[in-house]
Amino acid sequence: MTREQRLKKRYASEKRFRFLGIGAIAISIFFVCLLLFKVFSTGSTAFIKTTIMTEVDFNKELLELGDVKNPTLKQIKEAEFFDVTYKAATGLFPYKNDEEEKGVKTLLSGNYETEIKNYLLNNPELLGQKVTIELTASDDLDQLHKGNFPRDIPEDRRRLNNFQLNVYDNLVEQGKIGTAFGNYFFFSGDSRDPEIAGVAGAVIGSFFSIIICLMIAFPIALMAAVYLEEFAPKNTFTDIIEININNLAAVPSIVFGLLGLGMLLSVFGLPRSTSLVGGITLSLMTLPTIIIACRASLKAVPPSIREGALAVGASRVQTVMHHVVPLAMPGTLSGTIIGLAQALGETAPLLLIGMVAFVVDVPSVPTDPSTSLPVQIYLWSESAERGFVEKTSATIMLLIGFLIIMNSLAVWARQKFERKW
Amino acid sequence: MSNKIVAKKVSVFYGPKQALFDVDLNVAEKQVTALIGPSGCGKSTFIRCLNRMNDVIDICKVSGNIEIDGKDIYDKSVDVVQLREKVGMVFQKPNPFPKSIYENISYGPTIHGIAKDKTHMDEIVETSLKKAALWDEVKDRLDQPGTGLSGGQQQRLCIARAISINPEVILMDEPCSALDPIATAKIETLIDDLKSSYTIAIVTHSMAQAARVSQHTGFFHLGKLIEFDFTDKIFKNPENQMTQDYITGRFG
Predict the structure, then answer these.
(1) What is the tally of structural domains in chain B?
(2) What's the pTM value of the predicted model, to 2 decimals?
(3) ipTM of this complex prediction, to 2 decimal places
(4) Residue ranges of chain B whose CB lies within 8 Å of a chain A CB
C-alpha cells in the first residue's frame, strides 16, 4: 500500500467515524422530538377549558333569603342554591322531557353548582340580579368543542346524543360557547370528572416527597461519602461496603417500595399513602446514587489541597471540612439534584406504599394522603375518558418541565460554585 | 552549630516495599540542608517523615528515631497537629487554597488561634508576605484568589502560608521544580534570607541549586543515604564514588 492510499484510508475512516457519531445524535434527537411532539400535540389543549355562558338569576326568593334585608356572606353561604342552579342549568335550552332535561344539564361540568355559588360569594352585590356567568362545560362538550369527538358516527356510539349535539350547535350559534384558562388543571386535586380534575394534589405531593427525600438523603449521603472517602481505612470491610453501595444503586426501585411497605408502614406504622412515607422511601432509593456522586466529587479534589492544609497544622477533620467538602460542593450538589430528579420521576416504589390512591383533596402537610406526578400520570393513563388522555399528556409536559428545571439547576450549581486550582 | 533534627536509623515501608534503609541524618539549626539524588531514591519520603506527612498514607510504616529539639516526634504523646505547627512544609507543585490571597495566609493562624484580632491578623498576613518577598506584588489585591497568581508567586504564597504560623523548621520538597529560572532565582534568594530565622531542609533535583543554597548536602540513592557532609565538601571532594558520579552527571 502506498503512502497516499494509507492516508486516504485514514481520512475515510475518520469521516466514517464522524458520520456515525452524527447519525447517532440525529437518531436520538429524532426520538426526543417524536416524544415531545406526541405529548405536546395531545396535551396542549388540557391547559384550556371550554365554557358555556349561562344566565343565572340570583333571585332572593329562590335563594330563600327573601325576608332577610342585608344578608351577610355567611347567610349567603348557607343559602339554598338548588333552585338557582337548577334554573340556570336547565335554562340553557328548552327541553321536552326528563331525558332531554338531563341532556341539557349534563352539558355543564359536575362542579357547576359550586361555581355559581362561589361567583355570588365573590360578588355579593349581585344578589337579586340576573347575570351571565362563564361556567365550565362538561368533559364531553369540552372534547367535542376541541374537535376530539367525531360527530358522524352512529348515535349509540357517541357520548353526546343527537339532541345534545343540537343544543351545542345552537349554543355555538348564539356565541355562548367560549374557552378559558384551564384553572382546574393547575389548582385542583384529582376527580372522576376529567373537566374538573387537576394536578395540584400531585404537584404538592411530589414537592413534599422531594423535600423530605432531600432532607434525609443529602446529609446521610454526604457524611457517608466523606467518611468512606476521607477517613475510613482501606480494607476488606470498606471494600464490601463499597460494592454494596454500588449494588444498591442498581437495585430495581420497586424493591425499595417493598422495603417501605414492609418497614415504614407495617413495622413503624407510618400513615399509608402519604408523601412522608413516599419521601423516606425515595430517599432510601436515591441514597446510593448520591453517595456515589459525592464520593466521585470528593475524589476529584486534588490531594495537594489536603497536603497544603495538613502541612499548616490542620487536623484531618479541619482539612476535610474547611477545604475538601467546600471544593467538592459543586459536584455534590449537582449529583444530589440529579438524584432528586430521578426520585421525582419514580413511580414503582410509590405504588407499593399506597400513593396510588384516589385522592381528591390537595394535601397541606406531608402526612396527608396524596399522589405524586408520575403516579398521577399512571392513574390517568388508565382512565377511559377522552379528557384524561389530554390531561395525562399535559401532566407529562409538566413533569418534563420540572425535570428540565432541576437538571438546569444542577448545571448551574456546578458552574456557579466551581473553583479552579 | 547545633542540630535541630536528629534522625537515627530511619526506615520507611510502603506495604511490603522498603523505601528507606537506616538513614542517619542531622539537620543543622538555622542552616539549609539539601537532599539530592535520582528520582525514587527516597529523599522526598525522608523529608515527609520529618513532619509526619506520611501518616496519611495507610500502608506507610516508619521505624527508627527522629528527634526535633531532643524530642521523639513519633512518640505517642506527640500531637501531630502541634508538630506540623512547628515544622511547616512547601510542596513540589504550588498548592494555594482556591481562596483569596489573604485567606491563604490567615488560615493557619486562624485554626491555631494565633491572631488576637483583625488588626493582628492583618499584621501577620503582611509580615508573612513580606518575609516571602511577595508583599509588594500582591498588597493591592489581597482579596483576589491565590490561584490567579503566576506559578512562582503561588509558590512564594505557599512559603508565606508556611511561615504564617511561625514554624521553627521549613521543609521544602522540590519547591522550584515547576518554576521557570527567574522564579527559581527569586525562591533561592528567599531561602537564603529565611535561613537566618528558620531551619530549612530542601529536596532538590538541581545540583546547582543545592550547591547555591545549602550548607549541608545529603546524597540519597535507592533508599540509602550514601554520603552526608558540608555542601562544599560534597561538591568539591566527595568521598564516595557514587556521589562523585552523580554530581558530575555520569548517572542519575
Answers:
(1) 1
(2) 0.85
(3) 0.89
(4) 51, 53, 56, 58, 81-82, 84-85, 88-91, 93, 95-98, 107-108, 111-112, 145, 147, 158, 161-162, 164-165
